[in-house]
Amino acid sequence: MSMQRVCLSPESLKGDFEPMVGLFKALADPHRLAILSALAREDGEVCVCDFTAGLPLNQPTVSHHLKILRDCGLVTSERRGTWVYYQLAPDARQRLADALDAVVPLGVLA
Amino acid sequence: MSMQRVCLSPESLKGDFEPMVGLFKALADPHRLAILSALAREDGEVCVCDFTAGLPLNQPTVSHHLKILRDCGLVTSERRGTWVYYQLAPDARQRLADALDAVVPLGVLA
DNA sequence: TGTGGTTATTGACATTCTTCGATATACGCC
DNA sequence: GGCGTATATCGAAGAATGTCAATAACCACA
Questions:
Q1: What is the DSSP string of A37-67?
Q2: How far is the CA of A44 from the C1' of D30 (A)?
Q3: What ipTM goes with this model?
């Protein structure tokens, strides 16, 4: 009989990580990180035309990335006249930090 | 001529986010999050056999995910006899927190 | 209403990723 | 050395993702 060590209880692998995966997937693209970083640095509204101008991507692709960020709630958008302005969602940083902490908590407590 | 507002300097989109993308890509899968979470909760070594036992994946797939986590430095592995034990890298939490902060800094300073 | 400019959506294609079976490698033991 | 077990690698199939051209939707203005 094999003296197999018990290193880990099987329930430890059974958590539901889908909500966090959605956020991390949104971060798993360099152009979306550039968009988020610009929004965070600006700390205000940025119109789509600036993204299409500053990114090496065509307009539909930029729109696609913005939609992904919108769908997971990391950014908000508001149309004002002809232009659409995007902002970092107020709780974006907190939600990302919380998601990270839910996976690899910094707290030393059990 | 169109009175186009200047919302954003074009250089704001030009950062290099490749190092962070690698980390976030590693987090963009529920099974890898389960592995990382288990390693973080255990705060010690976990042998591969426990992952293959606890995850709904075949052994080659588990090995593949572990390799991805190893390649980006979030986990370390050590063979001891027949078994291979994985650990969360000592700086894993810090590197992830730093990557997040590099994109959407929490600090209010410019 | 029509025209021009901005953003969103659709459909298609190429690439990447996840998963698996088959196989190889590494180790302990007889 | 030979055998059994644990882990890694290879190669391929299917799904998901990034990208673009074409087009639609929306808005301001004449």
A1: HHHHHHTS-EEHHHHHHHSSS-HHHHHHHHH
A2: 33
A3: 0.91
